[in-house]
Amino acid sequence: MKIKVPYFDDSEIEFSDGDYDPGDARPAAALNAFLALTSDNRLNDSRHVYAYYRDYREAVGGEDWMDAEMGMPEKPWDIWSFVYPSELGIWPGDDGDDNHYVYLEANCDWEEEHGLLLVWRNGAMLTRVSGFDGHPTNEDAGDGRQEIVYQAVDPRYTTRAGES
């Protein structure tokens, strides 16, 4: 089923309800919190996605080929022109983690193989930006640093929650 997502200007995005139990109040609250986010929230989150793009571009020598293929975002918020949301869902937290994580998978022009994964803790706070790997948090992915939103290859591009 597709649902309108205000974060992406009311784009209709496929909702994967495989693990979603509408009778359970916690995932329902996470989904409702996410659906309350707007395009203003997306613009505020731009720096994390832009950091992913810049880190990837530098790692693969993108200035030699990628800029010509996809163009180059002039400002961090321009990155969204290169992102194509495809699926939305909810993951429960792992052992000892009572949170629910709303995730969004997207295709993106700069990383065609792994795409883009955005994750919001309890639907309200962006807590992870990465290629799609199925992990709701960076801590769950094994780096032990839950405050990190984008864990970069080049540490200059690592972003954290609450930093501007």
UniProtKB/TrEMBL annotation:
Give residue ranges for domain DUF6985. Answer: 2-135
Q: What Pfam families does the database record attribute to this sequence?
A: DUF6985 (PF22481)
Give the top-rank taxon of the lineage listed in the UniProt record for this protein.
Bacteria
> What is the name of the protein in this document?
DUF6985 domain-containing protein
| The species this protein was found in | Mesorhizobium loti R88b
Q: What is the lineage of its organism?
A: Bacteria, Pseudomonadati, Pseudomonadota, Alphaproteobacteria, Hyphomicrobiales
